[in-house]
Every structure is written in structure tokens, then in C-alpha cells.
Amino acid sequence: MSSTSFFIIFLSFTFVVLLQEVVSVDYGAALTKSILYFEAQRSGKLPPSQRVQWRADSALQDGSYLRVLGGYYDAGDNVKFGFPMTFTITMLAWSVIEFEKQLEAKKELSNALDAVKWGTDYLIKANPQGSLLYAQVGDGDTDHACWERPEDMTTPRITYAVDGGHPGSDLAGETSAAFSAAAIAFNKSNPTYSTQLLTHAKLLFEFAKSSQGKYSDSFPIIGKFYSSSDFKDELSWAAAWLHRAMNDQSAIEYLRDEETDRGDVRSSFSWDDKYAGAQILVAKLILEGRLDESDETWAEYKTNAEAFICNCLGKGDNNIQRTPGGLLWFQPWNNLQYTTAAIFLVQAFSDYYTNIQSDFPGCSEPVTTGDMYNFVQSQLDYILGVNPKNMSYMVGFGSNYPQKIHHRGSSIVSIKEDNTPVTCQEGLDIWLKKDAPNPNVLDGAIVGGPDKFDAYLDDRNNYQQAEPATANTAPLVGVLARHAAP
Questions:
Q1: pLDDT tens per residue across span 272-296
Q2: What is the pLDDT of residues 148-157, one digit of tens each?
Q3: Catalytic annotation, residues
Q4: Cβ proximity of 263 and 305 under 8 Å
């Protein structure tokens, strides 16, 4: 590396350090917006409590003959992709489970639970039988060839479902995890609903084990957008959540089985790779004294979990790359989804160690839970504007945030302001290409974020960086709650 490059990196780090000394980030305001974002992503008939007023009812035909009304639009399009949606719901529920006290303190617990329930109500409809699960509503190809508001979209609402003849252990496993996590989240406030969710969780876990295969192999056409790399991680993830939800011993036996894949040390945690999450859930049981660490199987889970955390902290054997400004960097396409998921795991694991009053072991140098908290805060601050560009990557937060995000509903005038239908081609010719800020602010959306050199291009066609997604924001809800009310 040249001396000039070293100098630029030095200036970037110096800039961030100085900025952190003078900037106070309002995590509470960011928390409120992060939950509000999910209301803007709602599909179906909106409730009277709807706060995002530029949205209106949409995709009502999903309920009229498909019987899967509701749920969430995944990102900037109008398809309901089941795989990332179920991960989103699991992470929202996990946020409630781990940070319920903080959400309550910031008066956001009921809103967070509403966000979870909007998703689980849809998943209940999508799982009318234990061995039948709708994987997607909408056609990705035709949807991506159009630019329409969800309220007046004209693209086909094709459905795909996994069943005994079309395996989808990954989708069924992740949906089971979402049901289990949500059951825990609703256990106190709505025990009847919690029991209903657990029934679905158990049935889907058994279905995922008995009819094994990747959902994207069963339906290659939907794998073009969210292809699954494996299904064994979702089986472990589902088992870990089922055990946590109801102390299911068969789930523990599954995790203990010698044929179950432990996942080794992961390079990321996301909608496609759940191993790190499952490892951390097992490690929690060890820390609580509920599993014996002298057992090599359980020790392997915990060791792998700790190694992932150390790599995030930059104190491991295979550290995750960072931008010159200090942001965790995983890949060019929608990098922030991996960053937010990773810092959720770091914060949750840090709190597990805080509860047993122990420093964190296993890294290349000593790490305290305070170090972990500060690291998470540094990543939060970067995302919310403490970075070389002084740009918040949460839409609507701060004075400088992305204005031209890749999002159909946000980029087209609200149907409540102008109810003239926007056709597929009009949307592409007029609204996608319009060189102006989006007319509707998608508060709380986390875009894909900067590149590995901290650069960001605010352009609606820049879908690698400028498209937000529900999986980006969901993990951040819990982290923001933890730092808004420490």
C-alpha cells in the first residue's frame, strides 16, 4: 500500500474519532423510525392504527382467491418473498425477547409486537397445513420489469408452495423459527396466540426434517432472487428456537445428533446463513449451565460462536474486513444487512456474558463486555451518520440521508395525493428516471449502504447500495433499543 493510501486511511479514522466526540446520536428517535418502517412495507388491508399515511391498501387479491392476504413487501419491489420475510420476523421477535425492557422504556414495545404480529398473522395463513407452506406471492421477473406502486400494481400474483412433493426444509425451518421466536415474544401479552404459533412451529419443524431439500431447488424461478445455499442451518436454527420456546428435548437431541451440521466458524449471519445464530443460542444454554461444556458437541457450538464474535471485533483468526471509516464490510451488494445482523449477535452475546458477570474469552486479546458494547455503538453511529460522508444510512434520520432510494412506493407520488393509476411503463419512464428526491420518505429504512471505501451514490438505479430491505432493519430494532435505554 502506498504512503498516500495510508494517509487517507489515517485521515478517515481520525475524522470518525473526532466526530464521535462531538456528535450525540439519538438512538431513541432512530428506534421509533426503525419500527415505523415496517408499516410502510405492509401488504394487504391496512389497519385503522396505520401511521404511515402515504400508503394505502394493496394486493387485496392475495386474500380474495389466494387466501394469503397481508405480510410484508421484501424491499423496493412488490413481491412477498417468504425466505427473507420469515428471517425478518424471527429477528423482530428476537429483538423483543432480548430487549423487551428497553422497548418498554422507550414506549415502543407494543409497536414492535405489532410489527411481529403483522408478519406472523400472514405466516399462519401461509401455513394452512403442517406440510404446506406458501413460499412466495408474486412473480419476480414481471415485477422487476415494472415500476408501480403496490396500491395499483398490475403484475401477476403467482403463488409457490413447498409441500411433500416440493421440499423446502430451509423455508420451513426458518418459518418454524419465526413462529417459535414470536411465541416467546407473545407469551406474556397474548398466551393464546403464543400457543397457536407454537403449534405451527412444531408442525413445520417436523415437516422440514421429513421432506428435506432446498426450496430454491424445488422452484428455480424464485431461486433467481433469494436462492438458498443450504437447508441444514435452518434445521439447526429451528431446533434451537423450538427448544427455547418450549424446552423441547427432541430439539436438543437433534442439535446433539452426530449427523447434525454444527456449521464451523461462519463468515456472516443473514437470511441465507443461520449457523452463527444457532451457535449463539446453544452457547447461551451453556452459559446458563443448562448444557455441559465438557461435552465436545456443545463446546463446538460455543467455540464457533465465540470465534464469529471475535472476528467481528477484529480480534480473531479471520477478521471481517472494515471500510477505512470502520464499518464492517462483507460484500458489495446490500452490505448493511450483514452488518446489522452481525452487531445484533455481538450485542446479544455480550449481554449473555454480562448476565453471568464474565469477560468474553477466546479472542486474540482480552475483550470485556464493555468493549463489545462500545463496538456495537461504533457500528450504530456509523450507520446513523458518524462516518466520512456525514450521511445517515437510515432514511429519514438526521439531516443528510439517501433521497433517491430504489423503492417503488416511496419514489412514486402517493395514491392519496394522485389516484391516477401509474402503469408499468410510466413508472419506468417517469418515476424511476426522475432526477429528484423520492416524494415519500420511507422513515427507518436501512439502505444497502456504502462501498468498501465508504463511498455512496444516491441514485435510484443504484440498487446495490440504494435499495432498503426488511432484513436490513429488523436486527437493528433490538440493537437500537439496547442503546436507547442501556
A1: 999 999 999 999 999 999 999 999 9
A2: 999 999 999 9
A3: 406
A4: no
Rounded distance, CA 481 to CA 14, Å?
Answer: 28
Strands 80-81 and 159-162, sheet pairing:
unpaired
- A 10 A CB-CB count for 373 gives 18
Instruction: Report d(CA 449, CA 322) in Å as an integer.
Output: 13
Amino acid identity, position 185: A
How far apart CA 333 and CA 329 sit, in angstroms, is 11
- Rounded to 5 degrees, what are φ and ψ at 133? -145, 120
Say if residue 271 is exposed, middle or buried (CB neighbours under 10 Å; 0-12, 13-18, 19+).
buried
Alpha-helix residue ranges (DSSP H) falling in 23-81: 27-40, 61-64
CA nearest to 346, candidates 308, 314, 317: 308
Sheet holding 80-81, edge to edge: 80-81, 133-137, 159-162
HSE (CB half, 13 Å, CA atoms) of 312?
A: 32
Per-residue cell: 173: 425451518
CA-closest candidate to residue 150, choices 405, 407, 409, 404: 409
Q: How far is CA 192 from the centre of its chain?
A: 26
Domain covering 27-484 in this structure, CATH number: 1.50.10.10
**Among all chains, which residue has been given the C-alpha cell 420456546?**
245
DSSP string, 147-200: ---GGG--S---EEEEBTTB--HHHHHHHHHHHHHHHHHTTTT-HHHHHHHHHH
DSSP 430: I
Domain-wise residue ranges, the chain: 27-484
